[in-house]
Design goal:
Elements: H1 4-16, E1 39-40, H2 46-53, H3 59-68, E2 69-72, E3 75-79, E4 85-88, H4 90-93, H5 97-100, H6 107-110, E5 112-113, E6 121-122, E7 128-136, H7 138-145, H8 151-170, E8 179-186, E9 191-200, E10 203-208, H9 211-214, H10 218-221, E11 233-237, E12 252-253, E13 263-268, H11 279-310, H12 312-317, H13 320-342, H14 344-363, H15 365-371, H16 374-386, H17 389-395, H18 406-419, H19 425-435, H20 442-459, H21 465-468, H22 482-491, H23 499-540, E14 553-558, E15 562-564, E16 567-569, E17 572-574, H24 575-584, H25 595-598, E18 609-614, E19 626-628, E20 633-641, E21 659-663, H26 664-673, H27 678-686, H28 693-696
Parallel strand pairs: 12-20
Antiparallel strand pairs: 1-14, 2-3, 3-4, 4-11, 5-10, 6-10, 7-9, 8-9, 10-11, 13-14, 13-19, 15-16, 17-18, 18-21, 19-20, 20-21
Length: 698
């Protein structure tokens, strides 16, 4: 059945010839590329690339691309010199700046600049992963689960087999090496790869731009294009000897950059997509899961913003700007997903794709026998999930850090503590967390708790026992404050008679029952989706990549603008545009440049390309991903996608969606003329390592 792959690749070639003017008409008929282009390194689509671009990467190209790219916590990055120099987005590492900050410094606002190697500062608890090798362990994992009788037994058998794979591959560790082995289900478990990463644990800041430069345009510009942000930072990996790591695999800098229509590859770690869910699952996301999460994030973000506006001093002390950036990013993504799923053509297009897939299964007798009823079986499980829609809405993000009031979090932890066996290790850890809990400011605490009550009142019947147990809370409970909680624990007076625990005694059994039921349904879905994945791989082979898994991928695209709002978004913006925003919106905090940039310094060419857009297939997790030419020359850093691209969670649309990148020509220009980091410019452009700025100037 893999003969269908060439048809898909030919269809992809035709799709690249469609002009961007077609972007405003979106067909409800499925496209061959709807499942995207997040290609696996272990299954590169060589025929497709050759048919589409006349370029067929060889083994050496794939190895260099894989070893030059990095994965960092939540994001992507890459080596850009033979001396361990790493580049990524500012927003990927700005949360780490407080950890290296010294007395009197405000690095988030002022940025960081190491004028010498000695001034580069190690980031506590940070790491970077480099993918060394890949092994197909599908047969090993499947064989372990083949004799299991129940969902739970199969899950346990797969986990035990994955642990054995990790132990076996970790045994190849060389002295001094830090290896991480991840067993990654692909095609919803239809295929499994083991990824062996080398983990670098001595990573140091080299430079970070100011927040106002990296997040220029603020939250309003997030998920939009055209953009004007200098979203970049430099790090360096050091070896066990305390010296810069030798990194022969790295991307080189391109002075030429890119022009509209140029081919680019974006290499990174896309986090998660839902393109290979069934229509029944997508409709459930639309009606229940995504809608509920979007509402939760929107309301909590509003509470944080209101508090910060009323008390910015306390907000700064709590680092609420970073907190709000994170919540806002998730909120925009979920609202965008919710809106995408409400578009009738999205579900219609996925339904057309599903029909083609089911027809292909039915056309092959062997596949029909094994997989013919899987879609209907999934629909039956989803119908059971729908029966718990009220509980899902009531318990969404219950107790989640940042989204729940402190009282809510302590109540849930206290319930776990009093329910556990006294003296158990789990009880000890829970007690320790409770003893170390901290209060939110009173106004923020009240807002978050009231939002939880509003959630319950919106979906629960008026006579529900949960609502009846709310009287007097949280003030009448010892759990209302961190100090009261600690005092009650020390005195041994925290019991189930506490008003907060009386609410917990009504709430937590229902919450646990809902969790258990949903976990059981999820386990059944996982087995069924694994069968769907195997069927998809049998029908399409590597022509259809698996959903994103925050594991290394590469994607192809072309630099291209698009039509929007009756006008054109250009393929790239320039530094002129950044200064236009600064002066046209004078006084607006989102478009106010930091002092260092406020007046263009001598030598800075304002015609330098700043941000550009391409049709590459990216999503969350791709932030910081290098954008390279077919010669593996670095031309950009992926940092965002446009609002039209949020539909990419469910299908890839090159007509509308764009990923947005920082142009490396702007990185070089600002390093040179704004931040005066000649030693970094020299290393980036020539590979030459110098210890100080004075050496760079010689």
């Amino acid at each position: 059945m893999k003969r269908l792959g060439m048809a898909i690749w030919v269809g992809a070639l035709i799709a690249t010839m469609v002009p961007s003017s077609a972007a405003q008409t979106v067909s409800a008929e499925a496209s061959d590329l709807d499942n995207g282009k997040m290609w696996l390194f272990e299954n590169p689509p060589l025929d497709y690339l050759e048919a589409t671009y006349g370029f067929r990467p060889d083994a050496a190209w794939l190895e260099r691309a894989r070893l030059s790219a990095l994965r960092i916590p939540g994001c992507s990055a890459s080596f850009v010199s033979p001396n361990g120099l790493v580049v990524t987005n500012h927003h990927c590492v700005r949360g780490r700046l407080p950890a290296i900050q010294r007395e009197g410094e405000t690095l988030l606002d002022d940025g960081f600049r190491a004028a010498s190697l000695d001034e580069e500062r190690r980031i506590p608890g940070f790491y970077a992963d480099q993918l060394l090798r890949i092994e197909d362990v599908t047969a090993e994992i499947d064989a372990a689960a083949a004799t299991a009788q129940t969902d739970a037994e199969r899950a346990d058998a797969r986990q035990a087999a994955a642990t054995a794979v990790q132990a076996r591959l970790s045994a190849s560790r060389a002295p001094g090496d830090s290896l991480v082995v991840e067993v990654v289900p692909l095609y919803q478990g239809g295929k499994t790869s083991a990824y062996v990463f080398r983990r670098f644990i001595d990573v140091r800041f080299v430079m970070a731009v100011e927040l106002q430069a990296g997040f220029f345009g603020g939250d309003g510009d997030n998920f939009t294009y055209p953009r004007y942000a200098l979203d970049y930072s430099f790090l360096r990996v050091y070896g066990p000897d305390g010296r810069p790591m030798a990194t022969p695999h790295h991307f080189t800098f391109s002075d030429a950059g890119v022009q509209e229509g140029d081919l680019v590859f974006v290499i990174g770690n896309p986090g998660s997509t839902s393109r290979q869910l069934t229509v029944a699952q997508l409709e459930y996301l639309r009606d229940v899961q995504v809608a509920v999460r979007a509402r939760s994030l929107t309301s909590r973000l509003g509470a944080y913003r209101a508090f910060y506006a009323a008390d910015p001093v306390t907000g700064e002390a709590m680092d609420l700007r970073n907190v709000m950036f994170g919540i806002s990013n998730s909120e925009k993504a979920f609202v965008g997903r919710a809106e995408a799923l409400q578009e009738p053509w999205v579900i219609a297009r996925r339904a057309d794709d599903e029909k083609r897939f089911r027809d292909a299964i039915a056309a092959d007798p062997a596949l029909a026998v094994r997989f013919g009823g899987v879609h209907d079986a999934i629909a039956a499980v989803v119908a059971e999930q729908r029966t718990m829609a009220v509980e899902t809405a009531a318990f969404e993000a219950l107790g989640a850090a940042r989204l729940a009031a402190g009282f809510e979090q302590r109540m849930m932890q206290a319930w776990a503590l009093l329910s556990d066996a006294p003296g158990s290790e789990r009880a000890r850890r829970t007690r320790e967390r409770l003893m170390q809990s901290a209060d939110y400011p009173a106004a923020l605490e009240a807002s978050l708790w009231n939002l939880r009550i509003e959630d319950w009142k919106r979906v629960l019947p008026a006579d529900d026992p949960i609502l009846a147990a709310l009287d007097g809370l949280p003030g009448s409970s010892a759990l209302a404050s961190a100090a009261g909680t600690k005092a009650a624990l020390e005195a041994g007076t925290l019991t189930m008679e506490d008003p907060g625990m009386r609410l917990a005694s009504v709430l937590m059994p229902r919450f646990a029952a809902w969790q258990s039921a949903m976990a059981g349904l999820s386990a059944r879905l996982a087995d069924l989706q694994r069968e769907i994945g195997k069927a998809r791989f049998a029908v399409y082979g590597v022509a259809v990549p698996p959903d994103a898994t925050f594991s290394p991928r590469f994607t192809d695209g072309v630099v291209r603008g698009y039509e929007y709002n009756g006008t054109l978004a250009p393929a790239y913006t320039t530094l002129f545009g950044m200064y236009d925003r600064h002066y046209s919106f004078a006084g607006h905090p989102d478009w106010a440049l930091p002092d260092r940039l406020a007046s263009p310094p001598p030598g800075l060419d304002l015609g330098t390309p700043l941000n550009f857009a391409s049709t590459s297939d990216t999503i969350g997790g791709n932030s910081g991903s290098p954008a390279v030419t077919k010669d593996l020359a670095l031309v950009g850093l992926n940092f965002d996608r446009n609002i039209e691209g949020l539909v990419r969670d469910y299908l890839y649309l090159p007509e509308r969606g764009r990923n947005v990148m920082v142009d490396m020509r702007a990185v070089k220009a600002t390093l040179d003329h704004v931040y005066d980091l000649d030693r970094v410019v020299l290393e980036l452009t020539t590979g030459r390592l110098v210890a100080t700025e004075a050496e760079a100037d010689r």
